[in-house]
Every structure is written in structure tokens, then in C-alpha cells.
Design a protein that fits this description.
Distance between the termini: 31 Å
Number of helices: 14
Helix content: 40-55%
Number of strands: 6
Radius of gyration: 18 Å
């Protein structure tokens, strides 16, 4: 399994809490997890030179080819959040033979709208010139949580805030620039059997997950409408904002097990389900 984080995150802040969750331990006994960080997004990263040209979203996706080659990965399940979900989707479109399935949290298929573009541009200007200002922090918190979670889950917001200050703001601005310059994935639902053979699409099974109060619900609906319904599953978790892995880890874990069963993993899925049930506390 290969993970890829969102803007304002890295492998630690994006997946550390989720993969440390008790119910996830059975899955870790069956999967080898490879966490991929976008360039310069790791904690306490050195700042890139001012003239550094950051990779585009397509180039970030292409970098996964060398990751697979280096570790000898022939096929994998991609697990991405936000920008990371978009990057893994691009890789799956170009290299479908290497992707077993995709789990996309708050997946987006379309380019940035004018509102998103405007807020990101102002935020990036601050990040490059003044560091992590209140404006940039507020925007990133909204991007990850949505309004409702920000107002009711102060402990989780504090944890996320503490992770933000460990990221290099200049490097983060470069990643955000690539994110808002993203192109459309170019995938569309095709019902004609003949055209479907040559159409650009995600050919692997896809599980899309979002929260009921996530700022990205509409984006996930748009992406789901473009996918083959025979391969795509869309899940909206109640009482949850955008940071579903930390707000509802148990429900996401259950969805993963069911998704693996639906893919026909057979004995592996059955073993996962038994381990998962045994790991749950008695009520």
C-alpha cells in the first residue's frame, strides 16, 4: 500500500494517527505500507532555493514510478488524501497495470475554481514572504476540517495546528502552487461499450470517502459521477468533517475491510475481518 498526503500535511500528520489506531493493527499485519512525502513537505525540511522549480501534479505522479522501481513494487493499493488522492489518480490513469485499487479521501478530479485559486494565491504569498501567518493557517484549517469540526473538535484542531508549524512554509507554498495549477483528470463515465475500451478512465476499483461536513463533498460527488459505477464506491461519513482519518478512523477501517472483500481478496479479506473483529473492544 502506498500513501500520499494532502497539502499542509506529510506522512506523519496525514497518516500517523490513523495507522496507529487500534483497529488498524490487523491490516498492518497483512500489508507493507510505503509512505510517500511530496518534495520538501517532511517535518523540519530544509528550505528550497527561491529559484527551485516545484514539480507539477503530473510530475509528482510520475515520481512514483521510481518509488515502485526502487522498492520492487509490482502492484499496490493507493491510499491518498486531497492532493495526494489526485496524484495517485494520475498515476493510476497512466500506469493502470501497477495499481490494484485506490482509496481516495476527499478526491478531486477538476481544476481549482476561482474562489479556491484566490484564497490559495493569497495564502501562498504569505507563506513565501512571511511564513505561517494567521490567514494561511485559517485557510488550511478550513481546507482540512470544514467549519463544523473547527467549532466542535478543538483538541484535534490543536494537534493539527502543532503539525503545521513543523512544516517549512516556503516549501508548502510551492506544493500548494502546484495543487492550484492542477489540470482536470480528464476521466469521464463512458456507457458505450466500444468507446469505453479506449476512454481515459480509472480502471481499478475505487473507494471514495468524505465527511458529511467536509468542504470537499461536492468535489467527491463530481469525481464519483465520472467513474465507472461498476468499479467505484462512494462513502460519506456522518458527524465528520474533512479529516476523516482522524475524526472517524474506526469507520474508515471497517470500510477498508469491506472494500477488500469486494475486490475478491478472498482469504486475505476474511483474515482481516476476523482480526478486525477480535481487535475491537468488548462493549
Amino acid at each position: 500500500m502506498i500513501t500520499y498526503h494532502d497539502i499542509g500535511q506529510n506522512n506523519v500528520s496525514g497518516f500517523g494517527g490513523f495507522f496507529s489506531f487500534g483497529s488498524m493493527q490487523p491490516l498492518l499485519r497483512h500489508f507493507c505500507i510505503y509512505h510517500v512525502n511530496a518534495p520538501g513537505q517532511e517535518e523540519n525540511a530544509a528550505q528550497f532555493p527561491e529559484n527551485y522549480v516545484y514539480p507539477t501534479m503530473d510530475q509528482l505522479a510520475d515520481m512514483l514510478v521510481s518509488v515502485c522501481s526502487h522498492f520492487g513494487i509490482k502492484r499496490f493499493v493507493g491510499f491518498g488524501v486531497g492532493a495526494g488522492a489526485n496524484i495517485l489518480s494520475r498515476f493510476a490513469i497512466a500506469h493502470h497495470e501497477k495499481v490494484e485499487a485506490l482509496v481516495l479521501i476527499n478526491g478531486v478530479a477538476k481544476p481549482a475554481g476561482w474562489t479556491e485559486w484566490g484564497y490559495q494565491k493569497v495564502s501562498n504569498w504569505y507563506l513565501k514572504g512571511k511564513g505561517m501567518t494567521e490567514f494561511s493557517e485559517d485557510y488550511l484549517l478550513w481546507h482540512h476540517f470544514g467549519k463544523e469540526t473547527l467549532e466542535r473538535n478543538h483538541d484535534l484542531v490543536t494537534v493539527f495546528h502543532n503539525s503545521l508549524i513543523k512544516q517549512n512554509p516556503f516549501n508548502l507554498a510551492l506544493f500548494c502552487d502546484s495543487w492550484i495549477r492542477r489540470t482536470d483528470l480528464g476521466v469521464w463515465r463512458q456507457t458505450d461499450p466500444e468507446k469505453k475500451k479506449t476512454a481515459k478512465q480509472l480502471k481499478c476499483p475505487v473507494l471514495e470517502v468524505t465527511g458529511s461536513s467536509s468542504p470537499h463533498v461536492d468535489d467527491t460527488v463530481d469525481m464519483n459521477s465520472r467513474l465507472d459505477p461498476a468499479n467505484a464506491n462512494w462513502l460519506k461519513l456522518s458527524d465528520c468533517g474533512g479529516l476523516v482519518l482522524d475524526e472517524q478512523p474506526g469507520k474508515v477501517c471497517e470500510a477498508l475491510v469491506l472494500f477488500l472483500q469486494g475486490m475478491g481478496f478472498g482469504k486475505l479479506a476474511l483474515s482481516l475481518e476476523k482480526d478486525f473483529l477480535h481487535s475491537r473492544p468488548m462493549s
